[in-house]
Amino acid sequence: MTHIITSLCVRDRGCIDVCPVECMIPGQPINEWPWIYIDPDTCIDCGACVPECPFAAIFPEDEVPSAYTAKGGEYISRADLTGHFEGTNHHGGPIVLDTAKQLEAGEVVDFTPDIQPNYDFFKSGPGYSAKDIDNGM
Ligand code: SF4
Ligand code: SF4
pTM for this one? Predict the structure, then answer.
């Protein structure tokens, strides 16, 4: 098993530094790969990243919610969305996303389609090479 980062991820980077096997990689280019991605072949399922995420975006693979009920106000970020999100990340740097959408209270979201991109990022996407062009965003 592995842990999975879902589209609740807004790249605040709180999780990356705690991973003991350094398998959490910021996606690049951001508009195509807007999250941080977990390498499923390297993740040891330690769970250390989960409490570090202020946006509760990380789940064990078999606990990714298929019917998440939004509290209202939280953002999701997916490559096919076009909304704007700005914030400050865990290191005090800027977050700017143009792949965001703010959820309304009671909106129900299936996050299980977010599982596969964690695999695809390392199989057919940039994978660890994205670290070479990481700009801290
Ligand atoms: S569960 Fe552990 S090994 Fe897997 S990504 Fe999170 S911190 Fe890294
Ligand atoms: S802490 Fe959460 S929101 Fe921040 S990069 Fe990690 S998964 Fe994404």
Answer: 0.96
